[in-house]
Amino acid sequence: MKVRLYVCVCALLAVFSVISACRKGGASSVPQTPAALSAPERIVTLSPAATEIVCAAGAFNRLAARSDFCDFPPEVKTLPSAGGFDGKTISLETVLSFSPDFVYMTKGIHDHLVPLLQAQGIRTYLSDADSVQSVLDEISYIGKITGNEKTAQSVCNGILCDIEKIKLSCTGKRPSVYWEVWSQPYMSAGGKSFINELISIAGGENIFSAVEQSYPVVSEEAVIMANPEIIFISDAQKDGVLAVKSRSGWKEIDAVKNNRIYSLNADVVSRPGPRIAQAASLLHEKIYSVNAQVQVE
């Protein structure tokens, strides 16, 4: 459990580390694809989101290896692993052993591998998806370079359609939401985070949306004072809901008093990949179960 939660937090922090660069560089940091470049035949992915995107774009048959934590879609488990997610646990020699012609990584974690791989003539891509649009751009890019543009476009259209349906079904009061990324120290989702956007799409109001940082460390007092109506935590968090309920001073928080603490599938909600609409749907379901009760009361 601890390892799985650590991977989720690392992925979120990697996104946070490049937010400023992304904002300055425009709406999307996806590179242009020179027409002369041939489609990659042996792709190595070093993050779960990258693996999901490659598969969603219709290029599973081009995957040569993935990371230890890549587990979706299920068939990727049949592929050999190139190592863990953390850049410190990735061996260049291991990656090279799969004879890749394209290595798909995460910015802020795997940057140091780029010059080493490029020196071997291997194309690289550093994912820095920090919003729904940047995820869509990334899916489109992978579809384009693998010759699967139509498949990728279909996936993107499906995501946009599902998200629009969720938005249209959001009516009435927007309950306040505290999203707990980490508890030692307390870390939440700020206004520029991917998760803040998902909360908004799903019909909630993030209590830390005004915070400039993407994933800020917050004080326990700030959470208690904000008095969120809903608390979301990761299902990889030890003791989960019971641990939150037992915290000193938290009993007076509305979410705790009304049993509105929800443990979510971290693999779905924390990966900026093709399951983002599913993530928004999960949040929407919980948020509106709260709204229904609030309206009755």
Automatic annotation (TrEMBL):
PROSITE patterns the UniProt entry points to: FE_B12_PBP, PROKAR_LIPOPROTEIN
Keyword Signal assigned to the entry: answer is yes
State whether keyword Transport applies: no
Record-annotated Fe/B12 periplasmic-binding domain positions: 42-291
InterPro entries, alphabetically? ABC_Transporter_SBP, ABC_transptr_periplasmic_BD, Vit_B12_bind_prot
Top-level taxon of the source organism: Bacteria
User: Could you provide one GO biological process annotation from this protein's UniProt record?
Assistant: cellular response to iron ion
Signal peptide segment = 1-20
Q: Keyword annotations for this protein?
A: Signal
Recorded hits in PANTHER family, A to Z, give:
MOLYBDATE-BINDING PROTEIN MOLA, VITAMIN B12-BINDING PROTEIN
> What is the protein's name according to its record?
Iron complex transport system substrate-binding protein
**Per the UniProt entry, what species is this protein from, by scientific name?**
Treponema porcinum
